[in-house]
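Standup notes, structure subgroup. Blocker cleared on the 2'-deoxycytidine-5'-monophosphate input:
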Amino acid sequence: MIIAVDGTAASGKGTLAKALAAELGLAHLDTGALYRACGLTLMLEGADPSSVDEHAAEIAAKNLDFSLTKDARIRTAEAGEMASVVAAMPEVRAALLEGQRRFAYSVTPELKDGLRKGLRGAILDGRDIGTVVLPDADYKFFVDADVDIRAHRRWKELINHGSEAMLPAIMEDLVKRDERDRSRQHAPLKPADNAILVDTTEKSVEEMVRFALKAIGRQPLPGKS
Ligand code: DC
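Run returned:
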């Protein structure tokens, strides 16, 4: 089973993907972490988001140090901004595309040498998973919520990570980032034609997971969501 989860920034798509992975026995890849790791690499090289060199970004993506996807610094607002900037560059997207597809298909049972035996497939979350990375996914979700709710959630997340954060600045950053992600020429943020829309504005995590499971004809595991 292959599932694509796309959506706006801080909409809950990552939380949904993680929960569905646990419920359904799927490997999970947060593809935003790849773009953030690429952005962080450039930040560490001293790059400025307003003038990122495309060639340097392409090299960073091609030689990505995957350990950076686990680095707490990718979760800062600056790395998020940088990620969105490099994500608009076609060379960067091309460099990261194959790895995402390999992740999805190397864990399915059809490939007996699958890296992670026992898993029943994969779930990837991002912006273009249902439209570009995995257009043949069995199920596609598109997650969104009102911007003030998303800003509040992101603010709480940053505070919990020990960062200083101001709500109005976060709101402005989300609006700017979504606009850049939506309006870019290559693989823009948009729902796939056959995506199931999930509005998380008034849904708790449990409600969101139940809704998604129901939409694909599954029940939550007993004692879980
Ligand atoms: O999901 P996130 O906030 O961690 O993503 C960071 C940025 O990476 C986001 O602004 C757009 C980009 N991104 C993308 O263009 N395509 C993806 N599949 C995932 C993320």
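Discussed briefly. Residues 182 and 189 are 5 Å apart (CA to CA).
Next: hand off to the docking folks.
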